[in-house]
Amino acid sequence: MTRKGRRLTLIASALGVLGVAAALMAFAFRDNIVFFYGPSELAEKAPAPGARLRIGGLVKEGSVKRVGDRNISFVVTDTKKDVSVAYAGQLPDLFREGQGVVAEGVLVGPGQFRADSVLAKHDETYMPRDVADALKKQGVWNENKPQPAGDKK
User: Coil, helix or strand for 71?
Assistant: First the structure.
């Protein structure tokens, strides 16, 4: 084999190994990817029950119901569509009705969500960018309200 042939073989082998490594990494990360949806997007795209995802929006007024010490249910809305959320655990101190929230968990069925974790904005100047973008897309975002972190003008 000539010098040029060995070099091409070495380069082809290296590219093959890199391709296999990239495929293995993509396969390993596919279970860790969590998609973000607003209630309207969730209704439109209708992911399969059991799908792991994040939903975000506003906690609907009058929807928070406590069952026992640690079980709670509430509704996340973008004022067009609603998603019922069931959560067992301690809620953030700043969680309340009418406030932005992100819940991560599993879709149980259409409009039904079981959350593993719930995040609420930590002060009046912060809302997760994904939630703010979803609210803007739905026409719910009020420009007079504080901007999401990183959007300061």
Answer: strand
Q: Is the distance from CB of 128 to CB of 148 less than 8 angstroms?
A: yes
Q: Do the Cβ atoms of 48 and 73 come closer than 8 Å? A: no
- Domain interval for residue 65: 35-138
Is the whole-model pTM more than 0.70? no
14 and 71, same structural domain? no
pLDDT in tens, 126-147: 555 666 776 677 666 655 544 4
Query: What is d(CA 129, CA 40) in angstroms, rounded to the nearest whole number?
Result: 17
CA distance 103 to 115: 6
Domain identity same for 24 and 79 = no
Q: Which amino acid is it at 86?
A: A
- Choose among 70, 93, 73, 92: nearest CA to 83: 73
